[in-house]
Specification:
431 residues, Aspartate Aminotransferase, domain 2, Aspartate Aminotransferase, domain 1, 7-stranded mixed sheet, 4-stranded antiparallel sheet, 17 helices
């Protein structure tokens, strides 16, 4: 093991030995190199002659680049072309941390890490796997989940995925969640909670969140080491008053010394910049210290450096520029209102009795999506294909559940979407 990794492990052990036990073997061995090329380049910064960094530089000291880009991007050259730090741009990281506190009032008096920039939430999830998942570890998910989790945790890190039933009696199935966690014999358990959920579009209501915390606290008090990965990709897109508005990260970050909360989020869906590929990974644990978080940040940045080096400088700079504009909040609210209006007309349309004869809507209150189960023994894949061929309508199928992305459908076409689904069901049921 590299001496720099040993130093970080010693810091983590001294601050909270439970966290060291949560790390995967890769996580224990990784470090951000403070010596070598990066350190020597930093020492040479500002010198009269700097022949250290692997970038091409013009005679005037600015980044060498093709002039054709000058008319396309209205940003300073040094905010576009040089490598960004593996940790992410400091200004953007600090800005995102400030956003987290503003969006989650419960975080105001809690010490938590400064977010590390990732290449979107998918990459952040993969880096969390690098840090915490060993082959054979169990990752607990709801039975309705984003299929990319399989590629990340099963194919990428050799984990075993175990699911709990998400819904019972129109809400979160607390019993299934509790029994699934209790059934795991390993000392370390990775739990992944995704709210608003993809594909269901469900976020726990206020009364459910405390009960979820009670289950996790009970498991932690039994001596289990819990790494709770919080996929907050759709954070903020909540459309009902009784739905929990903060991230559960705020609750978990102060719950127990055996629970490490790992928040994975970013502007991809929150700020409608899917192609920018910027996300963040943030850590919180009860009685966490600045020294503990700095060690975790260094390990995470080391994993990123050894994986993709760093995140797009241009994307980070564009985001920072928009976040500094006074109109940012108003622009974001305008887009939220469009999605909320689509949600409301969808919810109303699904109440029609003739539709409910064939379509069972699953609980939804947030995000981009909602799901339906089909009645009368209809096959979801057959319905999907029939929708494509006869009604020029595309949907996604998970097993025998159909996901509808109302985020991608104009408000005026949402009634048509549901009517087409009804007609396809009617056609196939008659046959």
């Amino acid at each position: 093991m590299n001496e720099q990794a040993k130093v970080l492990n010693d810091v983590i052990r001294a601050q909270n030995s439970n966290v060291l036990k949560m790390l995967s073997e890769k996580g224990k061995n990784i470090y951000f190199p403070k010596l070598g090329i990066l350190a020597q380049s930093a020492q040479a910064k500002g010198k009269n002659i700097n022949a250290t960094i692997g970038e091409a530089v013009e005679d005037d000291g600015t980044s060498m680049h093709l002039p054709a880009f000058d008319s396309l991007i209205n940003l300073p050259v040094n905010s576009i072309f040089p490598y960004a730090p593996s940790f992410g741009k400091k200004e953007l990281r600090d800005c995102w941390k400030d956003f987290l506190i503003r969006k989650n009032n419960s975080l105001k008096n809690i010490i938590f890490s400064t977010p590390i920039a990732t290449n979107g939430v998918t990459h952040g999830m993969s880096m969390a796997g690098y840090m915490f998942v060993d082959e054979g570890d169990t990752v607990v998910l709801s039975d309705l989940y984003w299929e990319n989790y399989n590629l990340i945790f099963e194919n990428g890190y050799g984990a075993i995925i175990k699911t709990f039933q998400l819904f019972k009696n129109g809400g979160f199935d607390l019993g299934s969640f509790s029994e699934t966690l209790k059934s795991i014999e390993h000392e370390k358990i990775i739990v992944l909670l995704n709210f608003p959920n993809n594909p269901s579009g469900y976020t726990p209501v206020n009364t459910e969140v405390g009960r979820i915390m009670d289950v996790l606290l009970y498991i932690a008090q039994k001596g289990k080491k819990l790494i709770v990965l919080i996929d907050d990709a759709y954070f903020g897109l909540v459309y009902e008053d009784n739905v929990y508005r903060e991230s559960i990260f705020a609750e978990l970050a102060q719950l127990h010394e055996n629970i490490l909360a790992v928040k994975l989020d970013g502007p991809t869906k929150e700020d409608y910049v899917w192609g920018f590929r910027v996300g963040f990974i943030t850590y919180g644990i009860k009685n966490g210290t600045a020294a503990l978080y700095e060690a975790l940040e260094n390990k995470t940045a080391g994993a990123i450096r050894g994986n993709i080096s760093n995140i797009s400088h241009l994307s980070q700079s564009l985001l920072q520029s928009v976040y500094n504009q006074e109109s940012y909040g108003a622009m974001k609210q305008q887009k939220y209102e469009i999605l909320k209006a689509r949600y409301e007309i969808l919810k109303e349309t699904l109440k029609k009795p003739e539709y409910l004869e064939y379509i069972e809507p699953l609980p939804f209150n947030s995000g981009y999506f909602m799901c339906v189960r089909l009645r009368k023994g209809l096959n979801a894949e057959q319905v999907r294909l029939h929708l494509l061929e006869k009604y020029s309508t595309g949907v996604i199928v998970f097993g025998n559940v159909i996901r509808l992305a109302f985020s991608a459908v104009p408000k005026t076409k949402i009634p048509e979407l549901i009517h087409n689904l009804f007609l396809a069901c009617l056609d196939l049921h008659k046959n």
